[in-house]
Amino acid sequence: MNHSNVIEEIKVWATPLFVTQMPYHDFLKEALLTAVYQQKSLQSTAIESQIAPKAKHALHESTLDFLDLADANVMETKRILEELILEVASSVNQGFWPENVEVDAHIIESWYHVTQKNGYHDAHSHPNCSWCGIYYLEPGDAQELGNGGLNRFYDPRVNAEHYADPGTAYLGGQGIWDFTPKEGQIVIFPSYLKHSALPYFGDKDRVVIAFNSLIEMY
So which domain of life are we looking at (predicted)? Predict the structure, then answer.
């Protein structure tokens, strides 16, 4: 007599990442690039934020208030990004938020990276915020095979590789997730998720706007 066990797989503690296209990217791109390069020309040092300069190479980083510039296109970009963040936060928190509450997303830090040939940013995470994002304003040559410039995200399960045998092979296959920059795309992810910008070998500048946000409930 054959007996078959019913074994149910339950996936728990997934890490949600969200990818979308920036609305009006074609309209905003040139104005935003102009704002980025204007600010870059005013920088007194490559890493103007003064945050972890040794983790960054061959790139320029602004202070952490780029999206607070008094520029109509920059302000519109911030408004759109906050709407997208709120949509993401609302979707994952269904069932956890009380009914009939007012909720807003606020970008509290924002900066650009202008990455040049051989530039990179070592693995890191963003403290003191809930949702983070990267807007690929101009991916440069990163979309071409062999030019690097990918964003790599790392498995947050810190004990996943404390032991290895054939039964854990599936863990090693999920240790990283590489995201190839595409113009106008935005990736939004929880702040605890470690990530890096892999070395970039393109000749054209790779330009992104990154941001950290908080969710406020009234």
Answer: Bacteria
Give the residue numbers spanning the domain of 79. 18-157+169-217
pLDDT(1) > 70: no
Termini Cα distance of the chain: 62
Which residues are paired to 56 by β-bridges? 121
Tell me if 140 is assigned to some domain: yes
Residue 17's φ and ψ, nearest 5 degrees, are -125, 150
Q: Any residues with CB less than 8 A from the CB of 23 and at least 6 apart, and which?
A: 80
Token readout for 141 is 């040559």
Domain assignment present for residue 162? The answer is no
pTM greater than 0.85: yes
pLDDT at 3: 67
For residue 121, the SS3 value is strand
Residue 133 has pLDDT above 70, yes or no: yes
Whether residue 83 is contained in a domain is answered as yes
Give the CATH number for residue 73. 2.60.120.620
Lookup result for tokens 């990736």: 187
133, 17 Cβ separation under 8 angstroms: no
CA distance 130 to 193: 10
Summary mean pLDDT of the chain: 94
Q: How far is CA 118 from CA 59, 115, 134, 137, 174, in A?
A: 9, 8, 20, 19, 27
Residue 152 lies in a domain: yes
Give per-residue pLDDT as tens, 18-31: 999 999 999 999 99
What is the pLDDT at residue 2?
Answer: 63
